[in-house]
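User: These chains co-purify. Model them together.
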Amino acid sequence: MILRSAPLTKAAFVPFGDVIEARGARRFEINDGMCARFHDLATLDLTEAGGRPLVSLFRSRAWTPPFALRLLERHPLSSQAFFPLGSEPFLVVVAPPGETPRAESVRAFRTDGRQGVNLRRGVWHHPLIALAEGAEFLVIDRGAEGETGDGNCDIYRLDHLPEPLVVEG
Amino acid sequence: MILRSAPLTKAAFVPFGDVIEARGARRFEINDGMCARFHDLATLDLTEAGGRPLVSLFRSRAWTPPFALRLLERHPLSSQAFFPLGSEPFLVVVAPPGETPRAESVRAFRTDGRQGVNLRRGVWHHPLIALAEGAEFLVIDRGAEGETGDGNCDIYRLDHLPEPLVVEG
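Assistant: Joint model of the two components:
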């Protein structure tokens, strides 16, 4: 099955989380007019079960579509936000929350190079799909004292599907 | 008085907060080796008095050093993080926490274009000093229901100093 990516828009992404972008945001001027603030663009959900927000940087290798999706993951305790530091688009592959994602409900979105995303708690998603080698992202997700990442990450494998789910760029 | 900016380093910035950068960070590989994670780069302090973390974008006009500093501000309830989306350096002007900053204790730092900062709660700082017109930043600071920004921002004016404090680029 072929999964073609659609342009990422706030409206299309409603079931999955927030699109972090200046476009359409509440804007006000600060610092005596020297700066515009595009305000409150993501609903972070990071404090469940003793969690705290982590700020990290990700540096990715390039993915080269088309490729078959091997797995989706979800974080049952928290949201996860990605914002690109360069201007290259990246792909966001998601499926709605629920016990097991259905291949038919998986969606692929392509950012415009100036958009980030904040995945809502429990949303199934493919690991980050950067399209440029070395692409960097600021990531805001959850940490908790003494907890390994495994406790907040469920994996659903897709490589046993009767027909591979192939994402196009 | 002339304030010359120094290169921003973690060691020099200890009294003021975190330098958010990959260099020197705890790094581990994720996503089957497709991505490096530079982990937990800032101590966010955003939940005092009913606060929650806000993710916003700032788009700045260009500041052109040298210029006289007119004011410093501090946020008594929270940290504030800035990460640049482009690769242009910016200036960070800070003074240690305390009732009133002394002109002699004000420091200026210049980022290397790949660094962000997280200002610790109560640290005096000049509003964002981008050096490139239209420079954009991802900002992580605090919001609270029904509270105006004024409740978490003290201003200290510097334009009545006997001698102006002039920051050089």
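Chain A touches chain B at residues 20-22, 25, 30-42, 44, 46-47, 52-61, 63, 81, 83-85, 116, 118, 127-128, 130, 136, 138-140, 143 (CB under 8 Å).
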